[in-house]
Task: inverse folding
């Protein structure tokens, strides 16, 4: 009878791995710290008022100094806030302010942390899904998932959608400027729809999502933006949203979440105009696992485990493309639906933008 003997680890490699663990542990707890800073306006206060002691910031933000001092220390240790030991004051340098205090910045970070923290609330439920194979619908998550998702994606859309993504499509910019009929599928709380509507006042926009609370939020946003006469939001499934002869159809970071993306693509094919264009925005991904084993892939695979795969599994078919589907799988979905032209129009470090035409 043989007895397995565990191999002794290489001590240098072990220490390096333990160092990675310490970084990851700190980052995990840091997620909550960023959300606290965002919710209490601490980053914005630091950016607006300049260097402050913990007592000065506490007075400025009407928060408890002792809690704030501990929070500031954690942020300084993580490099998210700058500490000057001579003055005992804390501040944000230009890069920190750009990413943590400026909501119009294309690199605004707090939404990503809010999304991550809220997603983790589902860990007990998702653990059980591993055992049963069941799904978890998008609407079953805590509200922070919906708010964080909008905050996470909106800066990238605001920075790229009108300036580079739409211009990269064949003739779409000109159609929108002249006046087009647009359907935004899986619109969530309506950020993408409203951004397009503001940029192209001659066009009509229709946003659809199967999550009723998100649609309520989208309607509120459109009203606040003064877009109510050109933007309409309705609760609808991707496979049967109403209307026809759409000049432009969009899906932003949600095709992979759908239970039946092929069925949704077939419906788009049925309702799009003969010379229409379908823009598909998906998380950046390569076609093979080995090429996705990087920091971006790590984040997207994590979100996909907690959000995207359970969402798809909860629906009809449950294809579970996942957030790292890659171009080949997206192409297969689109061509299976009857589209004859498909190409990668442009990309960012976090998204790939595909163009599909009948």
Result:
């Amino acid at each position: 009878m043989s007895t397995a003997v565990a191999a002794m680890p290489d001590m240098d490699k072990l220490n390096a791995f333990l160092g990675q663990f310490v970084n990851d542990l700190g980052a995990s707890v840091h997620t909550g710290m960023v959300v606290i800073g965002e919710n209490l306006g601490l980053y914005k206060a630091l950016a607006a008022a300049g260097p402050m002691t913990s007592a000065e910031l506490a007075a400025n933000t009407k928060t408890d100094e002792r809690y704030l001092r501990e929070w500031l220390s954690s942020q300084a240790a993580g490099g998210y806030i700058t500490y000057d030991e001579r003055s005992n004051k804390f501040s944000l340098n230009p890069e920190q302010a750009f990413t943590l205090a400026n909501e119009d910045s294309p690199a605004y970070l707090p939404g990503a942390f809010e999304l991550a923290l809220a997603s983790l609330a589902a860990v007990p439920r998702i653990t059980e899904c591993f055992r049963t194979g069941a799904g978890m619908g998008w609407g079953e998550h805590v509200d922070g998932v919906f708010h964080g998702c909008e905050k996470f994606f909106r800066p990238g859309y605001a920075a790229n959608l009108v300036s580079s993504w739409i211009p990269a499509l064949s003739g779409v910019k000109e159609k929108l400027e002249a006046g087009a009929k647009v359907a935004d599928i899986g619109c969530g709380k309506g950020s993408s729809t409203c951004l397009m509507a503001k940029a192209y006042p001659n066009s009509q926009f229709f946003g659809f999502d199967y999550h009723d609370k998100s649609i309520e939020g989208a309607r509120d946003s459109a009203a606040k933006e003064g877009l109510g006469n050109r933007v309409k939001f309705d609760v609808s499934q991707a496979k049967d949203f109403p209307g026809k002869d759409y000049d432009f159809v969009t899906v932003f970071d949600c095709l992979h979440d759908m239970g039946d993306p092929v069925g949704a693509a077939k419906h788009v094919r049925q309702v799009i105009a003969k010379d229409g264009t379908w823009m598909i925005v998906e998380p950046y991904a390569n076609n093979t696992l080995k090429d996705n084993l990087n920091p971006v892939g790590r984040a997207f695979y994590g979100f996909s485990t907690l959000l995207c795969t359970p969402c798809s599994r909860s629906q009809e078919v449950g294809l579970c493309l996942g957030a790292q589907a890659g171009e080949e799988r997206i192409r297969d979905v689109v061509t299976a639906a009857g589209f004859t032209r498909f190409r990668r129009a442009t990309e960012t470090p976090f998204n790939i933008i595909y163009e599909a035409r009948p």
Observations:
- The chain has a mean pLDDT of 96.
